[in-house]
Fold this protein.
Amino acid sequence: MTEKPRLTREQIAQRAAQELHDGAYVNLGWGIPNLIADYLPKALTVYFHSENGILGMGRRAKPGEEDFDLVDAMKVPVTLIPGASIFHQADAHLMTRGGHLDIAVLGGFQVSEKGDLANWKIPGSKGSGGIGGAMDIASGSKKLIVCMEHNTKEGAPKIVKACNYPLTGLECVDTIVTDLAVIDVTPEGLVLRETAPGWSPDEVQARSEAKLIVRNHVPEMKLAPNSH
Amino acid sequence: MTEKPRLTREQIAQRAAQELHDGAYVNLGWGIPNLIADYLPKALTVYFHSENGILGMGRRAKPGEEDFDLVDAMKVPVTLIPGASIFHQADAHLMTRGGHLDIAVLGGFQVSEKGDLANWKIPGSKGSGGIGGAMDIASGSKKLIVCMEHNTKEGAPKIVKACNYPLTGLECVDTIVTDLAVIDVTPEGLVLRETAPGWSPDEVQARSEAKLIVRNHVPEMKLAPNSH
Amino acid sequence: MPASYLFELRFCRWSGTILGNIISVMPERRMKQKIVNSLDAAIADIPDGARIMFGGFGGAGFPNNLIQALSRKGVKNITAISNNCGTREGELGVMFKNGQVKHVICSFPGPHANYFQERFAKGEVTCELVPQGILCERMRTAATGLLGFYTTVGVGTDVAIGKEERVLEGKRCILELPIHADYALIKAQKADELGNLTYRLAARNFNPIMAQAAKFTIVEVEEIVPVGSMSPEDVVTPAIFVHRIMQAKGMRFAG
Amino acid sequence: MPASYLFELRFCRWSGTILGNIISVMPERRMKQKIVNSLDAAIADIPDGARIMFGGFGGAGFPNNLIQALSRKGVKNITAISNNCGTREGELGVMFKNGQVKHVICSFPGPHANYFQERFAKGEVTCELVPQGILCERMRTAATGLLGFYTTVGVGTDVAIGKEERVLEGKRCILELPIHADYALIKAQKADELGNLTYRLAARNFNPIMAQAAKFTIVEVEEIVPVGSMSPEDVVTPAIFVHRIMQAKGMRFAG
C-alpha cells in the first residue's frame, strides 16, 4: 500500500522542539531527539545537559574546532555556552534521576497506552544490547517526550497496548511525537493532540494498536516556517 | 584513697600520637584526640582530615591569622598545608564511612570488651544530646583509637563488660589509650599492651570492669622526651 | 541547511563569538530572573510549615542574612534540617528564640544552642538526631531520586530504633530514608547570573548537598559575576540547582 | 609550651612560611612515593582475576596507556567495570581482542565494541548490563561504605530480574548492591605529587567516582605538578583516593 507522505525525521524533531520552553534544562537522546537542537525556536534559551557531565552544551564543534575532551553522549565534539558547568557522571545522573531536568527526549521502539517505554533492545537481536543512560533518564525527568516513527518499517504499530519489546521504564512517557501525530499520555489513556498534515485521526488510529482518545477537534501539526 | 599519678590528658594524647604512622590520613575527634596534633613525632608526615570538608589541615591559625571560612570540626580556625584539598560534607563522610581514613581517634565514655564504643551521651543527661560525625567515623575507619580517662571522676571503670551508656558503634574500637594503659581489642578480648609508668597490670585490672588479657611481660609506656 | 549554520544563526543574535570552545553568547532573557534585590523578597514565598534545609557548619557557610529575613517574616511551624541548632541567637538560633521551628533534623545541636535546648526541654521543639554523614547521604538520596539505602552506621544504637534492620555482605545494617525539603537556604561565595556557584574554603560544607536536595534553593552570595566569567570546570553547584540568588554582605555569627 | 609553638617547630623543619592561610611546607618523604616511572611498573602488581574499574566515556578520559600496559602484561580473567567495551582495538577493545576479560559490568558496550561482541557471542565473556547512572551509584555506594540502595530505575525491566522489589514512598523500587573493585585505572589531566587530581572538561566523567570506589587507584596524567601548586578548592579527586601516579602522553582512541 502506497501511503501519504509522513513527517521526515527532521520534521519530527522540528515538531518536538516546540515542546521545549524557555529556560528549560533539557537532555536529548540518541537518534531523532539529537536533531532537536537544530530546530529550537529562536526566542528560546535552553540549557542542554549531557549525561557525561555537561550542562550548557552549545552547538557541535566545526571542523578544526574539535576538542575530543569535550564530547556529548554521542561522542560528537561539542562546544559550551557561557554559564556551562562540568561535573562527574554520578552528578550528571543525579540530575536525570533526581527530577532536575525539565525535559528529556528519547527515541523509542514502542510506547504503551500506559506510557511504558521500550527503546533499548529489539527482541531476538544479536549481541549484548546496551542500556546507557536511558533508564535513568526515563525514571526521573519532569517531562519525558519520545520521538519515533509511528510504525516499524514493516508497518507494525509502535503505539501499542502493551510493549512486547524489552522495557526501558514503566509509565514514564508524557508525550509522543511521531511522523503521524502528537499524543499525550494521560491517566485516561493516550490522547491524540495533533495529526501530521494531511492525516485524519481515524487514519492515525488505524496505524496504532492502542486506543487513541479523540477530544473535540484534533488540529494538524504546525511546523515552523524554516522547515526543511 | 589517694592514688598514684596518672597520665595527664596531654600525656594520653602524646602516647596516642605514637600510634600514627607516616603518610597516614587521620581524623581527630573532640577532646583528648584533638591534642594529638601537638605531639606528632617529628619524623612523621600525617594528613589531617576534618569532617567539614578538609584534607591536609595544618596547625591552628595564630591570632590575626584567623579565617573563619577555614575552621576545623571544633570551629577552631586552622591553616592548610600544601597539597590540601577542600570538598563538601558528603565527600568528607564518604572518606570516614568508606574506609579511606587510616586512623581515627575519638574520645570515649565507655568501651566494652568487644570494642563497642559509647561516647555521645551520658544517661540521664538533660538536653537533646548530639551525635555529630562520631558514628560515621566509628563505622568506617581502618583503625579506630579511643582516648579517654580509665575511670570516671567517681572512680567507675570505663573499660566495661558491656556499655550501659548510649552506644556510638558496635565492635568498632581497635585500640584504647587511657591515663593508665594501652589496650588492644582482639578477637580473644582486651589485651593489655602497656601500662602507665609506675602502674602494674594488676592495678590496671583492678580499675577495669572488663577482663584484661595479659600476655607475657607488659611494658610501661614510653612518652617522648619532649614530654610536658 | 547544515546544523552548525542554524546554530550559528541562533547564536549570532546574541553577537556570538567563539572563545576556545566556549561560544560567547548573552542569553539575556533568563539570566536575570533568578536574582532578587532584597533579602525579604528572597524568602517572601516561604510559607508556614515549610521544610527547610539550612547550610553551614562551624560558623562557616551559614546563610545568616536569609535566616534573619526569615525570622523577620515570622514564618511558623518550620521543620529545619541543619547540622546544628544555632549559636545563641546566631545562625539558626534566632529561629528557636522566636519559636518559629517545630521540628529539627540535625546531627549536633551544639554547645551554644541554648534557645533550641530551652524549647526542646519544654517540648515545643522535637528533634531527630542523625549521624552527620548519614544526614548528608539522606539528603543526597533525595537529590538523586533514590528511595533509601542500607548502612552499618548507627546499628545497635538509639539511631536504629524503629528502623528496618537486615544483613548485607555479612554486616548488620539499617535502612535509612531520604530527607526531602521544600527549600534550601544556602550560602555561597560567588554566583554567576545563571546561578552557578562557588564556595570559599570550608564554607562549602553542607551547602552543595542541600542545593541539590531541596525542591527550591535560595542562595545568598558575597558576589554576583557575569555569565561566562566562571570556568565551567570550577563550578561546584551547577545553576540547575539554584532558583533564587541574593547578593548580601556577609553577616557572621562565629558563635 | 603552647600548641601553636609546637606546630611551628614541626613545620620549620620544612622551612615553612605562611602564604595566606596555606602554610608552605615540603613533606618530601611521602610525596614521591606514589609516582612511578613506567607504565609497566604502574600496573605490575595487578594479578590475574582482578576486578578493575576503567574510566572514560565517549573517547574522553580513558586511561589508554595503562590499558595498553595491562594488555602487554597479559593478565587474564579480568572482571572489567566500565561504561563501554572499547572501540575496535582502542580503549578496552584490546583487552577483549586478547581474551583477557572474563566478565564485564557496563551500561553500553557501544557500536564499535566488535571484539567484545565476538567474545560475547562465543560465550567467552559474560556481561551484566547496568543503567549508566545506577552504575555510578553502585560504585559510589562501595566508595562511601554503604551496603545498597533502592531505586525506581529498571523496575519492570530486564534489569530487575532477580533483584528484591518493594514499595517505598508509594513507588515500586528494586535493591541495587555496591560494585567493589580491587583497582581503578583512571585518566586525569594533572596530578600533584601527593596525588590530588584535576580533569579536563568532559574527560572527568566516571574517573572521580572510580577513584573513590576501588581499593587501589592508578592514574595516568598528562602532567605532574609540585605540591602546593594546585588550589585546594580546585582539587576534584583528593589525594587520599590515589595510590599510584604515572605521567603519560595522551594516547587517544576516539573510535
In short: The first strand of chain B starts at residue 25 and ends at 28. The radius of gyration of chain B is 17 Å. The mean pLDDT of chain B is 95. Residues 151 and 179 of chain B are 9 Å apart (CA to CA).
